[in-house]
Design goal:
heterotrimer, B: alpha/beta, Rossmann fold, globular, C: alpha/beta, four-stranded mixed sheet, 23 helices, 10 strands, 53% helix, 10% strand
Chain lengths: 253, 193, 454
């Protein structure tokens, strides 16, 4: 099947749409460069994660129904986020009947962008360069729900779809961190409920990146990166934060 | 209603777990090429030591290992070694000043460096813990690879007690600093004869 | 409701101590990783353990009765306690019958849950906790902060001070070897002068009517081998069906807890000593309630290894005392929130849902999923902060109207850059307390996209 015949619905997290349009543009560019027929449905708003995360999942039901109505018609739904994708795949289930075909379709066709490029497209070439030392922050939803890389807790062979894609970028140097996959402390409402621990955890990740020689921190979830960027700027640390799509699509400082 | 009846009733009333069968557990553990070497390396990492000897050379070996020990109790006969028979005491407290206890081990487990002790003839369990130092004597043919094989051999029905010992007593309760010699023995040798 | 947050904030405020605590526990987690990765069959062991425990809990009454029958045949006296109060009363009765003045106790979270020590002390029976970590906190009159490493929150200097006060050791000598050997001498006296020994139970085997107690120090065995009376307290969930199941559980327990292959001593108590008495108290105290709840019943499978605590980035930086429940960390949070929802409604929120706890759990308990479900249950019970709930409900409602969302976005992106810092970073801006606000872009992606399409 020709990529031109594949319809992709671009799913953009609400806060990325408002605060990080560059990463959204990079995501769109990556998919359009591969000749997919990409559409960003304008009626989308929010997957409801902040509400569900706080235990108010019943308030999310309408948003879940809305999401499926908007996106079920696409061959694939691709998003520059692991946590929102995990939300749709795992936490929307209680809102739909077990035989709801539209939800089942959405559940099986929704992908985080790295997952999509690695598993579906099987991307093996990128014509971009990024001559910097990069640390990969393994955001928890991407890591332990979508399993984009092997969790250090498990006794399974090592793999990382994220690093595999990044290694296609010319001149890049991926650094090894002391703690490969410790949580950054964002945790959605946790960042507001327990700001002290949240900040301490974020600072720990930042120190790890700096101690490992990273010039840039990247990852699949801008929610985590936004939290750490906020700490970096407040604490005046020298570490640039970029979403992975920005690096994969070719980024110039 | 007795408390037993109340509890069992609560369990029955609340039972809502989807029943699954009890799995048969196969031997999924390692088999070692050099089983003694595996045991020796493992127990050494735990602060103990494994040695090989001959029943007739044991007395000299033990005196070499603990030259200063005078109060030695043993529940295994060691030719030419003067030891106290711990069973002569009625009160285990009488063993409190022992510098060295020598005890019989049934078999050793290579996977985790542990020795199984189950000795109905031994009157005082305290013998395994109360002495400053401990030696366990094991028949050199009694080494198993792993816990699966170990439990195939253990029949505890006619004993009151059995224990796996895998090293000298230890603790890391103070700042995660490992200290050998908590309440039990401060050293452990496992000697295969 | 925010008691974890307040206590955790205090703990974190001492940055040096917090980082030391985090490092110490991460070290234990790393040791666990090395041990688990040295066994190629590790993930299979976890799956078998999950199945054995789930099967057992599904037939719990059957196995408990089998256990009792076999234990009684061995000469063991079995008692049943429906709650903490009854447990304490039974223990006291047995001790009183034997004129016990002093009892030595090895580690048992169940006795901690029942507040047994206080009960016995009030009834003139002295209790000496013999696990080194537990003895330290007993002397300091503190609760344990971890189920395996009770004194992990203390420095060696703290311990030196405590021992100087109570054991008359050198206050300037904080060498752990010195302190441990002083404790050995002190506790040896206690063992030799005790009238009875109380232990916990790591595993109770239905098939043989015996129990297994695992220690590194040898304190459980020292106590039980030196006195005639042994009382073992066990929760109903400690049952496993067969002796051979210990192959699975003993391979998982120490590796998960401390990274060792096996604890120094794994004692199998089958029958009373000659001329001795051996009692086992089987305790419910709310455990049977878990069985009916599909969301939380798996937490009964717990073997109390502590791996989830060591792996929890929040626990490591907040310390066990921040949780306010006898067991801290992920497993404590789910147990506490189920047993006493109102008292512990803060605990499921003391978590980022990172899920590393579920990945390290040797029994594959779905800890992170349970904590997520607790949040839903807490909201349903009306225990969520009303203001927060209102904001979330309103936001959810607003998200049904893209035009309103777009409009709000424009307002925020346009006004925040114009406001002075003291307004943006006011007290109610919790995000801004430790973080700089993100830079407000001129256009949203949607605006860029729409323009592009024209």
């Amino acid at each position: 099947m020709n990529n031109k015949d594949i319809k992709i619905g671009l799913f953009i997290p609400c806060f990325m749409n408002e605060l990080y349009p560059d990463a959204c543009v990079s995501t769109l560019k990556l998919l359009e460069n591969l000749d997919f027929d990409v559409e960003y449905p304008l009626e989308q708003t929010c997957c409801g994660q902040p509400m569900a995360n706080s235990g108010c999942s019943s308030d999310v039901k309408n948003l879940a129904i809305r999401f499926v109505d908007i996106f079920y018609k696409y061959d694939y739904i691709v998003a520059p986020t692991a946590s929102c994708v995990a939300m749709v795949k795992e936490h929307y289930e209680p809102f739909f009947k077990p035989d709801d075909q539209n939800y089942k379709k959405v559940q099986s066709s929704i992908f985080e962008i790295c997952e999509f490029l690695h598993d579906i497209v099987k991307l093996d070439k990128l014509d971009v360069s990024f001559p910097y030392k990069v640390g990969v922050h393994n955001s928890c939803h991407g890591h332990r729900v979508l399993r984009l890389a092997s969790a250090s807790e498990l006794n399974i062979p090592y793999f990382s779809k994220i690093k595999k894609l990044l290694s296609l970028v010319k001149d890049i140097q991926i650094v090894d961190l002391q703690r490969d996959d410790e949580c950054c402390g964002f945790g959605g409402v946790f960042s507001i409920n327990e700001p002290e621990i949240s900040a301490a955890m974020g600072r720990s990740r930042i120190e790890d990146h700096l101690n490992s020689g990273a010039q840039v921190m990247t990852g699949v979830d801008l929610s985590c990166l936004m939290h750490m960027e906020g700490l970096i700027n407040k604490d005046n640390k020298k570490l640039k934060v970029l979403h992975i799509t920005q690096i994969l699509a070719g980024y110039k400082f | 209603m007795t408390s037993k009846e109340i509890i069992l009733n609560n369990i029955k009333q609340n039972q809502n777990i989807q029943q699954i069968p009890l799995p048969e557990i196969p031997n999924i553990n390692e088999i070692y090429e050099n089983i003694f070497e595996q045991f020796a390396n493992t127990i050494e990492n735990a602060g103990g030591k494994a040695l090989q000897s001959d029943i007739n050379k044991l007395n000299n070996l033990i005196l070499e290992l603990y030259p200063k020990a005078t109060k030695i109790a043993s529940n295994i006969k060691i030719p030419n070694l003067k030891t106290i028979d711990p069973n002569i005491y009625t009160n285990p407290h009488d063993l409190q000043n022992l510098e060295l206890a020598i005890v019989k081990g049934e078999f050793a487990v290579a996977q985790n460096g542990a020795v199984w002790i189950q000795n109905n003839q031994n009157k005082h369990r305290a013998l395994y813990f109360i002495a400053e130092n401990l030696i366990i004597i094991v028949d050199k043919n009694n080494l198993v690879n792993n816990l699966y094989e170990a439990y195939k051999q253990i029949d505890i029905t006619n004993s009151s007690y059995g224990v796996f010992i895998s090293g000298p007593s230890k603790t890391a309760d103070i700042e995660q600093s490992l200290v050998i010699g908590a309440h039990g023995s401060k050293s452990l040798y496992v000697i295969f004869v | 409701m925010n008691s974890h947050q307040k206590k955790a904030a205090n703990f974190v405020a001492n940055t040096k101590k917090m980082q030391w605590h985090d490092k110490a526990l991460w070290f234990v987690r790393e040791k666990r990783d090395i041990a688990s990765k040295s066994l190629p069959q590790w993930e299979s062991l976890r799956e078998y353990a999950n199945q054995i425990k789930t099967h057992t809990m599904g037939k719990l009454d059957f196995y408990l009765q089998q256990f009792e029958e076999n234990a009684i045949n061995n000469g063991i006296k079995i008692h049943w306690a429906k709650d903490a109060k009854e447990h304490n009363e039974i223990a006291y009765k047995i001790l009183k019958q034997h004129n016990v003045k002093k009892v030595v106790k090895s580690k048992s979270m169940l006795t901690e849950e029942c507040h047994l020590n206080q009960y016995l002390e009030q009834n003139n029976i002295k209790v000496i906790d013999t696990d080194l970590g537990e003895r330290i906190i007993q002397l300091r009159k503190e609760p344990p902060s971890h189920i395996v490493l009770p004194a992990i929150h203390l420095t060696k200097e703290d311990v030196a001070q405590t021992f100087a006060k109570h054991l008359y050791t050198d206050p300037n000598n904080s060498d752990p070897t010195y302190l441990t050997h002083q404790a050995r001498l002190h506790l040896r006296e206690q063992f030799l002068s005790a009238d009875a020994a109380i232990t916990g139970v790591n595993f109770a085997i239905a098939q043989t009517g015996s129990i297994v107690v695992c220690t590194n120090e040898g304190n459980a065995d020292m106590g039980t081998s030196l006195s005639k009376l042994h009382i073992a307290s066990m929760g109903i969930e400690k049952i496993i069906p067969r002796l051979s199941d210990l192959d699975i559980f003993l391979n998982l327990l120490a590796r998960s807890a401390t990274g060792q292959h096996i604890t120094t001593y794994s004692s199998h108590y089958q029958a009373p000593k000659d001329n001795g008495e051996f009692h086992i108290i089987i305790v419910d105290n709310g455990r049977s309630q878990f069985l009916q709840n599909k969301k939380y019943q798996k937490s009964l499978n717990c073997i109390r290894c502590g791996a989830c605590m060591n792996s929890c980035p929040v626990y490591r930086r907040s310390g066990g005392h921040s949780y306010g429940y006898v067991i801290p960390g992920p497993i404590g949070s789910t147990l506490g929130a189920f047993k006493k929802q109102k008292d512990h409604s803060d605990l499921p929120f003391a978590c980022t849902l990172c899920s590393s706890c579920s990945d390290v759990c040797p029994i594959k308990i779905d800890l992170h999923k349970q904590l997520y479900h607790h949040r839903e249950d807490i909201v349903k019970a009306g225990l969520l902060n009303k203001k927060k709930q209102f904001i979330l409900k309103t936001t959810a409602l607003m998200m049904n109207y893209p035009k309103i969302v777009d409009f709000m976005g424009i307002i925020i992106r346009k006004t925040i850059p114009l406001l002075p810092d003291f307004i943006v970073y006011n007290k109610s801006n919790i995000w801004g307390k430790y973080r700089q606000m993100p830079k407000m872009p001129k256009k949203s992606f949607k605006q860029i996209y729409k323009e592009k399409k024209q």
